[in-house]
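Subject: sequence -> structure tokens, single chain

Hey, anyone have a minute? Need the predicted structure for the following. Not urgent.
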Amino acid sequence: MLKDQYPYFLANQAFQANTDLEVTDKFTGKVATRVALADARAIDAGIAAAVAASEPMRDFPPFKRQAVLEHCVMRFRERFDELAMALCIEAGKPIRDARGEVTRLIDTFKVAAEESVRINGEVLNLEISQRARGYRGFTRRVPIGPCSFISPFNFPLNLAAHKVAPGIAAGCPFVLKPASRTPIGALIIGEVLAETDLPKGAFSILPAHRDGADLFTVDERLKLLSFTGSPAVGWDLKARAGKKKVVLELGGNAACIVDADQHDRLDQVIERVIFGAFYQSGQSCIGVQRILVHEDIYEDFRARFVAATSKLVAGDPKDEKTFIGPMIDEKEAQRLDEWIQQAVASGARLLCGGKRTGAMLEASVLENVGAEQKINCMEAFGPVVTLQPFATFDDALAVVDDSEFGLQAGIFSNDINKAMRAWDRLDVGGVVIGDVPSFRVDNMPYGGVKDSGLGREGIRYAIEDMTEIRLLIVRDHG
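Reply:
Had a minute. Here:
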């Protein structure tokens, strides 16, 4: 269970400045714990501490950074059950999904520990013409400096980890604003970091309301802003971020293509699509939202898929049998419920689900959804999918690309030529062949194009953003 109250972390130290932030159990709606809420003065102090820690963090050698990250791995393993239950309570995440996220948290810090001692440069051949004869070039990567991290509610542990772990590996001090609805996971990370010998000011973890957190974005002392969240907020932050580097991991309405040659393995395909569409109640930016099925197998797929969806168990996320838990709050469930009703009123057919009780929304499947409907063209971010048939593979690719988003796409096809054509043509950050777009391994480059974001996460790729290339030129006078 959760503790009665949690402090924030300012310059590596815990401060129970207040208990102003109430964190609710997302299933019961009751207050589960209270957290210290950072004000502008605390955020300013955290940024100042990060600035002061820039040189000590730069000089903190790679083997010590690695030791910090390895300590985190050890402690997360020891606190595995506590971390999983915290996710279950504060995010409403079904306990099986919560355990999966803790496993990924550990993986992310393990990869960062490995990469922390592999931040290398290169030797450049500058003798490309007579005028450069006798010159040698060398590069190395140096920390960019103080970083600002803003993490979302849906993966409170692992998406915070994808900023914190590479930040430590790169030697960058940081201030982190976890989502105010789900701050506990990040604060437990802070508890573990406070056990290490990181230089003073290397980290601050400061829960704050969005309207009081402008300094995370606009403060010119910060050299990088890494934000994960909604497109509207992300692009607004970029517009106000000034001269600092900005990395955005935003939304999506991911599509999955199921080709005709999958008929003999439809049960396996449906099992994966069910997972991709409805795990953690559909609250994932790469969750399956649009399913395109070849017309030759569409009716068979639809019947089996709807039957499987109807059997999903909804309820208390602490129950081992639960697959569908609550959405993050009733307001979000109500929004998505309204989108479903709007689509049905415009001619869509509701095949199953569609009922809402508070923050609980049934796993829902629709077909005949107009392209202009919000449930189709915007990010649903909940347990709802749309089905539609296609005649040719190129038709399906065109539908996938007919979106303002471009995060990942999934392709179920045995034809290597179609797989490569999808990789060539689709305007997305990643194409997954033989599985759903919801698949992610924590060392791979992850991110999107169009309204889905800017830049890539994945430890090595995040480290590249958190470092600058510094050049050395040596002239040989011999």
